[in-house]
Design goal:
It is a single chain. This protein is an all-alpha fold and 151 residues long. The chain is built from seven helices and no strands. It has one domain. Helix content is 74%, strand content 0%. The longest helix has 24 residues, at 121-144. The protein is globular and about 40 Å long.
């Protein structure tokens, strides 16, 4: 199994590759930028957030950003308690990504629901490209770990 340092390095390398590929595929620099940002997000929005304890990304956030890191740790605590490590809900490509994106998005989505604000298409597109990048990073994470899935 790879450690957090390897996963972080992989996400950084993947971000460059998928960013360039996305620009070439979509003929859109903004799409490429958001796909790359999504892959970079894999450093902190990692499938390993299902670990109930300290992992590299949480430790780095606390060391680099203090209270923000502790808030991030606290935000993910219920998620880590609810989902066992390497469960298919956290580690399966696509599914694990969408579960974490839904967990993150629950707060703003509730706010949008109550304000009845329409989300502009450009924001929907940016988020979609970001999720694609995160999915690629997560798939690499899963592969690097040896394709584990616990029930």
């Amino acid at each position: 199994m790879a450690d957090g340092k390897v996963h972080e390095k992989d996400s950084n390398i993947i971000a460059a590759g998928v960013g360039v590929a996305s620009v070439l595929i979509f003929h859109n620099f903004v799409a490429g930028a958001f796909v790359a940002l999504g892959a970079l997000s894999g450093v902190y929005i990692t499938p390993d957030l299902d670990v109930d304890g300290w992992i590299r990304s949480k430790r780095n956030l606390v060391n680099d950003y203090g209270i923000v890191g502790y808030l991030w740790f606290g935000f993910w605590y219920p998620y880590a308690r609810a989902i066992k490590h390497r469960n298919w809900l956290s580690h399966a490509p696509v599914v694990g990504t969408l579960v974490r994106v839904a967990y993150i998005g629950a707060i703003p989505l509730v706010g949008l629901y109550f304000t009845e604000t329409a989300v502009p298409e450009v924001v929907k597109s940016a988020v979609s490209f970001w999720v694609i990048g995160l999915m690629v990073s997560d798939a690499a994470h899963w592969a690097r770990d040896g394709f584990p899935l616990q029930k």
